[in-house]
Specification:
- It is a single-pass membrane protein.
- Its cofactor is heme.
- By secondary structure, this protein is an alpha+beta fold.
- The protein has two domains: 67 residues; 396 residues, Orthogonal Bundle (Cytochrome p450), CATH 1.10.630.10.
- Helices cover 49% and strands 7% of the residues.
- The strands form four sheets. Strands 1-2-9-6 form a four-stranded mixed β-sheet, covered by helices on one side.
- A hairpin with a 2-residue loop joins strand 7 and strand 8.
Length: 565
């Protein structure tokens, strides 16, 4: 009897040692994903995974030792190898963009499969049929956003309408954005800001190209400056000056604000462990939550200065029915003073809306323009055809205007093809099922997170011939001639679709089309030493280009044309 008990004890001890080693192995795997950087992080995650692992293996009342609760059950019709605590997160680390990794998984497991991301089950869809079902039949079921660190710390406790959960506040703000802020009429009324800023941008590039002919220009830097100036100009009538050596570093506070926005965009795309394992937020492994708080403070200080300055300039007589000339005036007119909006103060709502418009309106627009230029540089034939169309339609005696774009179908096709290959958000913003539903005949339980792989869907060989090739002509043939980006052609939805579709797509398209048209009209573009552009993709929410774009610009119009800008 004693011998049997000793043997049982040895087995139990051996299992305990094995499980402890497994917890530590899991910790090492997590650290190896590149999310954590120092010994303290590794110690903390090792300790916590051991504690959570014991809970995982000893759930009171669990029908089977080691089984997961139903809401975090292992993936069905998905990849094997889910680890304790982290699930499949270890498969998504590394230098490869997540959209590509998930695309490879869809090749192996089908257009709709499940993953376990920490404590959450996720449904990944990548075919237009499955995506259409999610954004039509099940659009309301998937209308909410999960609670994540970005919304909490960078989105004013989810007051930013793009990050807020589905409910009365989100419906109120979405209606305000689509019917008051981002209407075609308001965007047309602010066209002078776009046109003026793009003119200054082209004039600045001409000055640099003319000063030192055949010198490579860091175009990525200036494109980012352009889109940032356009969005803050539309938002609050602000802008930062161009300079030859450094971009807009005239005022230290302005410079810190611009850098903080860039940092916020970066932090929006990082992996925060507590987003998938909420109970680990207190550890702040990686320090990202602290960085979000610090970055948000810098941005908030500037936004509050803008609001208070505008309130002082408007005066009491302008409240209520003021027909504002920019987004800030519109917001201050729409939301009465001292009014709360579903629990948020007026000031919080205004700042949160400004914050999300800056973040979503600058980076994604810049990245689209950079990718378009990169594709053109690697396709001289396409660039020559775009310039031929420009010369025959607009000529060289005047600058192309927004009203000309509709008469430049090849240029429009270049932009469409760029968005197909490099959508502003390769993965649509995460959604969460608020009730049980069915996708592709499969049961999707409430609480499941939805990941839509737009990048994979728009490279589907069953829809697009030679899907990885840059062929603008495809949007001029009979099959895709009427394809647009408004969210109803489900084979092509670069701005997503449904209730959570990007409301700012009209703004972004206006900027990209006019800026690209002016560059194609105004310059012959080439690469330094005639080399191909490196098309390496980076990590982030907008699929950034890894290597900054450098271009040699040769003016193709008269000196007077550039001086007229």
């Amino acid at each position: 009897m004693a011998s049997a008990e000793n043997n049982n004890l040895k087995v139990i001890n051996a299992l305990d040692v094995a499980k402890t080693q497994w917890y530590h192995f899991t910790a090492i795997i997590i650290a190896g994903m590149g999310f954590f950087t120092d010994a303290y992080d590794l110690f903390c995650i090792s300790l916590v995974t051991k504690m959570l692992g014991r809970i995982y293996y000893h759930v009171p009342g669990s029908p089977k030792p080691g089984s997961l609760p139903p809401n975090v059950s292992a993936a069905v019709n998905g990849p094997p190898g889910a680890l304790p605590i982290i699930g499949h997160l270890h498969l998504l680390g590394g230098p490869v963009p997540v959209a590509r990794t998930l695309g490879a998984m869809s090749d192996a497991y089908g257009p709709a499969f499940t993953l376990r991301l920490g404590a959450h089950r996720a449904l990944v869809v990548s075919s237009w049929q499955s995506i259409k079902e999610c954004f039509t039949t099940n659009d309301q079921a998937f209308a909410t956003r999960p609670n994540m660190a970005t919304g909490k710390y960078l989105g004013y406790e989810n007051a930013s309408f793009a990050l807020s959960p589905y409910g009365p506040y989100w419906r109120h703000m979405r209606k305000m954005a689509t019917l008051e802020l981002l209407t075609p009429r308001r965007l047309d009324g602010l066209a002078h800001i776009r046109t003026s800023e793009i003119g200054l941008f082209v004039k600045h590039l001409y000055s640099m190209a003319n000063d030192v002919p055949n010198k490579a220009i860091a175009l990525s830097t200036w494109v980012e400056h352009l889109t940032f100036n356009i969005i803050i100009g539309k938002l609050a009538g602000k802008r930062y000056p161009y300079a030859h050596d450094e971009v807009g570093r005239a005022e230290e506070k302005d410079y810190r604000f611009k850098e903080a926005v860039k940092k916020a965009l970066y932090l929006s795309g990082v992996f925060v462990l507590s987003d998938t394992i909420p109970c680990l937020e207190w550890l702040d492994i990686g320090g990202y939550i602290k960085q979000m708080k610090d970055t948000s403070k810098v941005i908030d200080d500037m936004l509050e200065d803008w609001v208070r300055e505008r309130a002082k300039n408007r005066g009491d007589d302008d409240a209520g029915d003021f027909d504002g000339s920019d987004f800030l005036d519109a917001l201050m007119s729409i939301i009465p003073e001292n009014e709360t909006v579903h629990g948020y103060t007026r000031l919080t709502v205004i700042k949160a809306t400004m914050m999300i418009l800056i973040m979503t309106g600058s980076e994604s627009t810049a990245e689209t323009l950079i990718w378009a230029l990169s594709l053109l540089l690697n396709s001289p034939r396409v660039l020559r055809e775009a310039q031929r169309e420009m010369d025959s339609t607009v000529g060289r005696a005047r600058w192309v205007q927004e009203s000309d774009i509709k008469d430049l179908p090849y240029l429009e096709s270049v932009v469409k093809e760029t968005l197909r290959l490099y959508p502003p958000g390769p993965l649509s913003g995460p959604r969460e099922a608020i009730r049980d539903c069915r996708v592709g005949g499969a049961h999707v339980p409430r609480g499941t997170r939805l990941v839509v792989n737009l990048w994979k869907m728009m490279r589907d060989p069953d829809v697009w011939s030679c899907p990885d090739e840059f062929r603008p002509e495809r949007f001029m043939d009979e099959q895709h001639r009427d394809t647009n980006f408004k969210g109803q052609c489900f084979e092509y939805i670069p701005f997503s679709s449904g209730r959570r579709m990007c409301p700012g797509m009209g703004f972004g398209m206006r900027v990209v089309q006019l800026a690209l048209a002016r560059l194609v009209q105004g310059f012959d573009l080439s690469t330094p030493e005639g080399e191909s552009v490196d098309m390496g993709e980076g990590l982030g929410i907008a699929l950034p280009k890894v290597k900054p774009l450098e271009v040699v610009l040769e003016p193709r119009l008269t000196k007077e044309m550039y001086e007229s800008l």
